[in-house]
Amino acid sequence: QVHLVQSGAEVKTPGASVKVSCKASGYTFSGNYMHWVRQAPGQGLEWMGWINPYTGGTNYAQKFQGRVTMTRDTSISTAYMELTRLRSADTAVYYCARVPQGAMYYVMDVWGQGTTVTVSS
Amino acid sequence: QSALTQPRSVSGSPGQSVTISCIGTSSDVGDYNYVSWYQQHPGKAPKLMIYAVSERPSGVPDRFSGSKSGNTASLTISGLQAEDEADYYCCSYAGSVVFGGGTKLTVL
């Protein structure tokens, strides 16, 4: 069975960085693109970018260019999302989500449970 | 790329049908059949309900259907059930991924 298990909740001060992990199981990790999507409290879904676990290639939403870095460690089937220069507006639940093999990038068939990141002084 | 436009809320009684619209542009929804829909219950991760405008993943009831006309995609839920009460998000792709603002479905 396919699972994405994310790291635990984080509390950060403004200006700090956060790195969230997403461990995949039940499928070949390098065979499927991985998205990162966030959701601020009471708000909608916001796409942050994706990573190709096979090549390490990335595509970031323009809004996060320069502040986000997506990486992976194929040896442990884990994707990472690091966001720097945090501000209160970055308080949100962060999700990783898998693209099914052979599908286009807008399809996300398996989601992690979410990681709550709180930015507060 | 601007967010897709969805109504903030829709409602219907059990057994009825409701349709949620998702308005894009000729550069995203109108130009490609790259539309997906996600259901999200409070405190839960989103769940894929429709992809490629009208395709249902295995396990999604056939009460859920998708369509598209011009720059507007639609999700129709027929035979409403209490468990369908949730937020629904459309999603499209045109070089980057964009979500709609979300629609809260209330089952009366």
Summed up, what is this model?
The complex is a heterodimer of chains A (121) and B (108). By secondary structure, chain A is mainly beta. Chain A has strands spanning 3-6, 10-12, 18-25, 34-39, 45-51, 58-60, 68-73, 78-83, 92-98, 110-111, 115-119.
Number of β-strand runs of chain A = 11
- The oligomeric status of these chains comes to heterodimer
- Give the helix tally of chain A: 0
Q: Biggest interface between protein chains, with counts per chain? A: A-B, 23 and 24 residues
The coarse silhouette of chain A is globular
Main beta sheet of chain A: strand number and arrangement?
7 strands, mixed
Mean pLDDT of chain B: 94
Percentage of residues in DSSP E strands of chain B: 35-45%
Structural class of chain A: mainly beta
Class per helix and strand makeup of chain B: mainly beta
Q: Report how far apart the termini of chain B are.
A: 35 Å
Strand content of chain A: over 45%
Sheet with most strands of chain B: 6 strands, mixed
Using the alpha-carbon principal axes, give the shape of chain B. Answer: globular
- In sequence order, what are the helices and strands of chain A, one letter per element? EEEEEEEEEEE
Number of strands of chain B: 9
Q: Report how far the terminal alpha carbons of chain A are from each other.
A: 40 Å
